[in-house]
Fold this protein.
Amino acid sequence: MTLKSDSQPVIRLEGVTKRYDGSIAVDDVTLSILKGKRTALIGPSGSGKSTLLSLIVGIETPSEGAVYVDGRQLTPQSAVQLRRGMGYVTQDGGLFPHMTARKNIELMAKECSWPHGRREQRIEELCTLTRFPREALDRYPIELSGGQRQRVSLMRALMLDPDILLMDEPMGALDPMIRTDLQDDLKTIFVSVSKTVVLVTHDLAEAAYLGDEIVLINHGLIVQKDAFDELVRSPKDEFVKKFLDAQLRRAGALSDGYRRAEDRLS
Amino acid sequence: MRGWFAIFVFAVVVALIFTVGQIKGDRSNHFVRMGSKKFTESVILEELAAQLGESAGATVLRRQELGGTRLLWNALNSGEIDLYPEYSGTLAHEIFQNGVVEGDTAIESELSKRGLQMSRSLGFSNRYALGMLREKSEGLGVKTISDLMGQTALRFGFSDEFLNRKDGWPGLQAAYKFEPSNVRGIDHDLAYKGLADGSIDVIDLYTTDAEVAYYNIQILRDDLRYFSDNEALFLYRADIAKSEPEALSSILRLQGRIDDQAMIGMNGEVKIRRRTEKEVAGEFLASKFGVKSDQPKHGVVSRIFQRTIEHLRLTSVSLAAAIVVAVPLGVIAAKRAAAGQIILAIVSVLQTIPSLALLVFMVPFLGIGAPPAIAALFLYSLLPIVRNTASGLTNIPPSIRNSSIALGLTPAQRLRLIELPLASPSILDGLKIAAVINVGTATLGALIGAGGYGQPIFTGVRLDDFGLILEGAIPAALLALSVQWLFQASERYLIPKGLRLKPNQSI
């Protein structure tokens, strides 16, 4: 696997600001995401990280500034075309409840007039990739487990084989065991498909595990953008330190407790 | 989706079939179209004219029991009916208001300007009068209208027409300098019941009403000679003298041939002995003119069948048109906030117009019969469908909406593939509400000649015939229930399976 870190940015935000009735969600953000990189957007809740992702996929339009995807500016006219080169997974999957898993996955391909055989073949590949049970393909979302739903949502995002995968807290609504499972699978998938990934999360461990680069956001501003090791080694300011502390202490407490439990057993 | 497409096609087809049928049915000139007001005497007079016309070979279309004088007058002027029974006093005081037109010759020239003519008097005068139960009037010593003065405890119940006519209550008050406080409006047929059960004491009545004798009513002497003559006559369009001369001359044989006693007698046969207007009119014509008319007798089943067809037509056409218009309006309302406000405001205001007023309001534009009723029902059906479509679309969860946008679907694809199917339970609910309201409101269509289950209900009220009321009310209730059931059953086909599953069915 080769990653060209010197390649041109595939996503670029230039001076993007998003305001809602006076409050600022994203404040004059300029950010480049390089091709093939996995970027984790992390920050406390309300920091504007999800809004940033919505701006990239064009669900929200910037109050100021511009978003470029593949060198083209995202506008209402270009959005439909550009979105087909991006896959998007939301926290609760966002599956269409009136369609079976299969229909959800192949919807866009059908609208793009892919022939039946090609669709079937792609679904087959995706089931293998996401370890989704084939017999569940004809179930409705309501009949699937939470983890299965996220896998279907992922398959739907990957159906047209987009270069970019955008994920908004894809594991936020899952219970911890399924979450770990899916994290492992995502890691495998990311490595095998070598896509540009932007992942929104509030969990530093998840960001460190899945992202090459971590973008820490607070109050709509980018506070620090670095690899995890660099972030821990040289936090830029007090907020970064505090944020890292809080998350690492929780992890530490967990592993301490784990050790004590093991000691007692032995 | 296929189910909805089927509904849409069905709606358009229903609307087309009935519209074509309507045009063919109503625009033909080979009919003499007759109307009557919604009281028994008027219906009998129309029936007499109809049977005489038929005996002369004409085909008669009966528009019985229409809402009121204004409605009939407009229908006659616009050529929707050719003839109806009227009264000279009504013509002079109500139709030509303010007494501008005085005297028979002035009235005749005023009529001929409009292409209308009037017959000579049919032979009786149906004057207004005030009446009380004889027992009560004797108890209080009230014999004349002047005697009413000082009787402050009396309650007055007058028909709307009497309350508003210049030669009715306003003129009477002026003539007798009389201002009782306890006056209220009441339907004329119900007034007699009110009198009998003691809830009112004095009513307006017509001197030929059969109830005068039946309820033992004392007609109060008009000691100031205020009430004027009110000769019965026919108003008709002058052109039927050319198109149906035999029928017209046959009908005009009635001039001067019905005296007060004969009319009171016929009213009594219908209202008190519960016989049909057809039979009573037939007997009168047989004895007076030797006219034999074979009036087909309709059994209850065939009557109800006929009413059902009429009622179904009113509701299905209006509902079909409403679906075609309201669903797109609901989509616009959901997509464009500003337009949505305006659309919802308009359809809400339509909903607040009383149904009877809306029906009557349609008549100047669409005439009488089914079209104005359908138009009014159509307007009534808009609100529930528009509102439910709009709310169904705006209530789609944001994560689903965002996913559909992010997939790269165009707005049209999103609407067709995601939003409308997800809104379908709400839209179907709107249709269900609209349909059930529609079935109920359509009964009022009878007042403007649209037929339907309202016809036996209103006739039943007029004749105080409970059986007849049930003949309309029961099928109307059954129809409302079956419409409800039909929509429930159609959910299977119209609501996607994924939305009908319960969470506990999960594996």
Summary: The two ends of chain A are 43 Å apart (CA to CA).
